[in-house]
Each structure stands twice: as C-alpha cells, then as structure tokens.
Structure prediction request, 338 residues.
Amino acid sequence: MSDLDETRLGAWLAAEVDGFAGPITVTKFPGGQSNPTYRIDAASGAYVLRRKPFGPILPSAHAVEREHALIAALHPTGFPVARPYGLCEDSEVIGAPFYIMEMVEGRTLWDGALPGMLPAERTAHYHAIIDTLAALHAVDYEAVGLGSYGKPGNYFARQVERWSKQYRMSQTDDLPEVERLIEWLPRTVPEQTRTSIVHGDFRIDNMIFDAGGPKILAVLDWELSTLGDPLADFSYFLMSWVTEPEGRSGLKGLTGPETGIPTIAQVVERYCAATGRDGVPDLNWYFAYNLFRLTGIVQGIKKRIIDGNASSAQASKTVERLPGLVATAWHFAQEAGA
Prediction:
C-alpha cells in the first residue's frame, strides 16, 4: 500500500491519460526529500507520479506545476526528459497537486566516481553529461514557449535574495557564517552575460543512462528549474570537483588520466567549446553561492523534520551536513575576496 488514494488516482488516470488502462499498483520511491515520487504499474505500462508534500509548505517551493510545464516544453525538442502525460492541480484527488510522466528504464549512477568502469568509459559518461548540459543551455526557450518561465534581470541577484528569504523562513539556529554570506553575496554578484533554461540541480544522480552505455535517456528533478544564468548549472555541476568523495557526487582528488574523469579545466574547455564561450569567470564566487543555496535547502529540510513533515529517513542525515556546508561556503567566499 502507498499513502495515496489509489481508487481516486486510478479514476483520474483513466479520465486524463491517453491509452491508460488499470488496475494499478503504486510504490513509493525511496529518498527524494522534496517532492515525493511514486512508480505506478498499470495494465498499460509503467508511469511515474510526482506530487507536492502533504501539509504546510513554503509559498514558492515544490512547484510541480512548473516542473510539468518545463518537461512538456522540452520533450518535443528531443532533449532527454521523460514524456509528460498529465498534470492535476486539484488537491482533492490525492491530497496534493501532482503530475504523471513516463517511467524511463535505465541506469542511475549514484556514485560520481563511477566504480567498476574503465577510464575510457568514465570519460565517455562525463562527456555525455557535459554535452547534455550544453544542449540544455542552447535550447531556444522563447521558441519552446518558456519565455515567461523566469523573471528578467540578474539571476544570481534574484537567487541570493530568494535563498536568503527561504533560509529566514525556515531558520532554526543562529549561524554567524550564514549571516556573513547573506551580507556579502548580494554586494558581489557577477554580471550576467547570457540567459538560458537552468535546471537548478544538475548532477549525475539526476539522470537516467542507457543500460548499455554513456547515453543519457532522461534528466530528472526539474523542480528548481527557471530561466537564468547558465553558469548557475555549470558551477553547481562543478561543485562535485571540490567535494570530497563520499560515495555520491564528490570527485575531489579523483580526476585525471588514471581514472578517466575529466579535470575542471577539461570540463570547462569542453563546455565552452559546445556553448561558444571563450572561458568562464573565477568560480569561487559561484561555489560560495551554490553552497549557500544548498544551506537554504538543507535548512528547509531541518525545519520540516522539526515540524514533522520531512518525507524521507535520509532527511536527518542530510541535516547533519549543515555546519560543514556553511563553513565551506564561507571558505569559498574568502577565496573570492570576502
């Protein structure tokens, strides 16, 4: 059994999803602290449901409607996303808004170190990821109907303000380094020279790879997507290169010809070649910002644990990382001249 009303869900699917045929069985995916995600097995095939959390949530968080709009716009372009089947904004059906998309079968790579692969295979996988990010940033967002998906103006200025607010709304402790970041980041925002679709959480475990090789079949988890500075995604992706290997995305000390994992310089070179850039600015500011944003997200999870609304047993483990995140964010701010 799941925590959804399967009878009402089945009736909605039958009415709204082309080609759907029941009966259904619903299984909740483990993890995913933000928008709870479920696999639906039906006579007509397998589907995925993503919903908002039950209970009170911050106003702009968990926007599954935006996520659905984005994959509905991207799917026809050939960019690798799951096919969307429908959006339900009526909380009466299962208790929260949700959307349905296809179940993409393939491999999820949880450890960025790619254990068990040959160096050439690792290189090929990372090249596929970099090329996919460059392809996302090349999508003509106006042409696909996403011209109003984000606000105009400097993306990082908006994001610093947004995450400062989100942090304040879920603040539970007094952390002096966060206070310094909240003061320093808005004063030092870099100039924005390009605008593109920004994924917002672009990392190796948010992709599904083909079972047989380095091809990406779907990029997942678009809940933080918007229009903004493509360097947001690029610098966030590169955070793995300055993160200690922890069995997830951390790659610090693991790059070079022995492993086949590209160095930061090689990632920059390939991305710039694919996007027509002649280089990227000093990354330390962006690393400080990314860790500050992560601090805001983790602080939100901490507040949800305290309020009894966190949707995963992983949540408390994530929250233990908060002091380290804050210290590292301030370290990069100092590297950037704070």
